[in-house]
Amino acid sequence: MKNMNTAKRNPILLVLAGILVGALFFSNLEFSFSGFNSPEGGSAALSGKPNYAQAKSESENFPALSLKSFNEAFVQIAESATPSVVTVYTEKKVSGRFTSPFDFFGHQFDDFFAPPGMRPREENSRVQKGMGSGVIVTGDGYILTNNHVVEGADTVSIRTFDNRKLTAEIIGTDPKTDLAVIKVTGLNLKPLVIGDSDRLRVGEWVIAIGSPLGENLARTVTQGIVSAKGRANVGLADYEDFIQTDAAINPGNSGGPLVNIQGELVGINTAIASRTGGFEGIGFAVPSNMARKVMTSLIESGTVTRGYLGVSIQDVDENIAKAMGLEKPEGALVGTVVAGGPAAGAGLKTGDVIVGFNGKKVSGSVPLRNRIAALAPGTSVKIDLLRDGKPLQRSLRLGLQPSAEAAGEAASAQPANSSLGFSASALSAEQARSLGISPTAGKVVVTAVSESSNAWRAGLRRGDLILAINRKPVESFAGYSASVSGIKKGELLFLLVERRGNKIYFAFNL
């Protein structure tokens, strides 16, 4: 009889335990924002420092004492954050060759219908329409979204929660993080408070909001957890430190917010990993701390400036650690040290392993690269390193990260060949000195790579020495030119290149 009573009480105990856990999670769940009402007028011009919304401290808690109140907590998060989410519309005039009045598959955001009974001409111009999401982060109308949502757009507009359509201006974009800032003018704009993404923990509940698959599904709310932090080498941007989540994200969610259980913006939804093009439980968001720094820089100066150390770095794997006599495969291995750069001035050398940066451990090259880029040029930093197994420390001031064009000689500032996706030239003595390589006669060097090309996506970079094309050795620039001249659009290009003494193969379609 005692066992039967215990069995009957167990489900009740489980429910009570669940409610207790929910109460711990959802205490202090009260939202209040400042700066909701902004006067009409003004313009989208730079306004100095952005006036971000701030959360007010409240003494009232929201304890989850029942399943109903647990459910209500999620409802309040959604109701609080949703009015800050907008649908972003873009239009771009394009010209091209048309073969069908419908183009559902080749261009995701193209007009879906041609005039009844009419077939577009072979050569024509049209308006390419796009759509994404965004989140209002200041009361005077600054909105965060993705660069790929507004890239190349001639006009941008947004639709608010209360169904107003407002014209927007692009304040600035940063392709290296896939972020963009746009601005609108209007009354009663509700900004979302920006939270601290560094405090996120794997397993926390989060909510994604956006307009997946079309405007008819605007401000769709999905719920999940933080699956991982610090995801890099995904191939989506130059600077990657993504939050991974299993909250459902689909095409159209790009630029929308990822929100924590305090109702704060902790990420900008950017992309999904999918074999089918649909949701498979792996979504990526730019952390709010990175987004805030980029946005502040774009608003204050119209551009993003990043710190520059002046070295190339790579991860230390198990084989490298073993060869160098290191205890663990961690840190960032220094390759090229740029002559005249901050690192060279401080005495860093090829083969140094950076294990600490400003007192914090360096786990790998990507986190270090992100930390350097997040600091302003001129910032004083301390670097802990290992040289031949011996610990050393160096102090230096970060420089200003040069653009790809400014980093090299005049020849490397030439635009990339549009048909190849990259440009090359005979290696000159000046280029060799700039790149820190031997000025051997007959060598061909990559001088520019278009960031929108298959060559860039495959991994080809400025400064790579081309040794062979389609398995045929390159012994002169004339030989290189002859080899690439017969390659047609859509054909495979197979390159063998030398980069810092290492031979690497790249294969991609033109």
Describe the structure.
With 510 residues, the protein is of the alpha+beta class. Among the domains are: 85-113 and 121-183, Trypsin-like serine proteases (Thrombin, subunit H), CATH 2.40.10; 307-400, Roll (Pdz3 Domain); 410-509, PDZ domain (Pdz3 Domain, Roll), CATH 2.30.42.10. 19% of the residues lie in helices and 32% in strands. The protein contains ten helices and 26 strands. It has helices spanning 2-26, 67-81, 147-150, 288-301, 318-324, 342-345, 365-373, 429-435, 454-458, 477-485, and strands at residues 85-97, 123-136, 142-145, 155-159, 165-174, 179-183, 205-210, 220-231, 242-245, 257-260, 265-272, 283-287, 307-308, 311-315, 332-337, 353-357, 360-361, 380-387, 390-397, 399-400, 422-426, 444-449, 465-469, 472-473, 492-499, 502-509. The strands form five sheets. The protein has a six-stranded antiparallel beta barrel. It starts with a helix and ends with a strand. Residues 1-9, 12-47, 57-61, 98-122 and 404-416 have low confidence and may be disordered.
